[in-house]
TrEMBL record:
<protein>
    <recommendedName>
        <fullName>Integral membrane protein</fullName>
    </recommendedName>
</protein>
<keyword id="KW-0472">Membrane</keyword>
<feature type="transmembrane region" description="Helical">
    <location>
        <begin position="15"/>
        <end position="34"/>
    </location>
</feature>
<feature type="transmembrane region" description="Helical">
    <location>
        <begin position="55"/>
        <end position="74"/>
    </location>
</feature>
<feature type="transmembrane region" description="Helical">
    <location>
        <begin position="153"/>
        <end position="171"/>
    </location>
</feature>
<feature type="transmembrane region" description="Helical">
    <location>
        <begin position="178"/>
        <end position="196"/>
    </location>
</feature>
<feature type="transmembrane region" description="Helical">
    <location>
        <begin position="118"/>
        <end position="141"/>
    </location>
</feature>
<feature type="transmembrane region" description="Helical">
    <location>
        <begin position="80"/>
        <end position="106"/>
    </location>
</feature>
<keyword id="KW-1133">Transmembrane helix</keyword>
<keyword id="KW-0812">Transmembrane</keyword>
Amino acid sequence: MGHWLYRNIVEPGKLPLFLALTSFVLSFVVTRTITRLIRAGKGPFRNVTPGGMHIHHVVPGVVLSTVGGFGAVASGRHGVGSAICAVIFGVGAGLVLDEFALILHLDDVYWSEQGRTSVEIVVLTAALVLLVLTGSLPFGVNDLTEEEAQSRGLLFLNVAVNALWSVVALLKGKVRTALFGIVVPLVGLVGAVRLARPNSLWARRFYRRRPKARARALRRVYRHDRRWTRRVRAVQDWIGGAPSPRS
């Protein structure tokens, strides 16, 4: 384990990424725990309202992300300074993305249905960074054996092909599939060969004169959403808390 950690995390310079991801996840978990306690009226935590103005945690998040980001650029990938900046950036990014829905809608939708977007973005971001972190990059490792060089070259080719399929999946309106398809084998291919979502660029371009294909796409989206929407929302509620009922 220690050898793998050094060869694939430390030597390629991915230790700051590991620290940033860890602090990002912890920042989100701690923040959601505190906001849920505030919502339930439990514990010592209260909203910060100087002068009657509610200060959302996206504000210190932006400050920390800015400090950590510029600090990381200035310090490079190695050294204590880089590690500290990575932690600062991760904490800030966790605070910012926890309120991503507020930024997107320019409204306080934290505990509404629209607020689910924040949880979705955080989970997707953490998953993608984890995949990049645990994957073996084809660059950055010294003194490779011939076998290691060959395997990393094949990995690079695989990532390039996956990226191509992911672009097609993205054009077909499958954003999650496209993002995961870059680093997960065959995911992008599955999204690329299946029917496009009816409102996607692909559907508007290629299904315009194919009513049967468009009808099949509509039926597939309906069945998919009916099967998975409730389950996805249950997981989101477990992670971030259930939205407030509409008044």
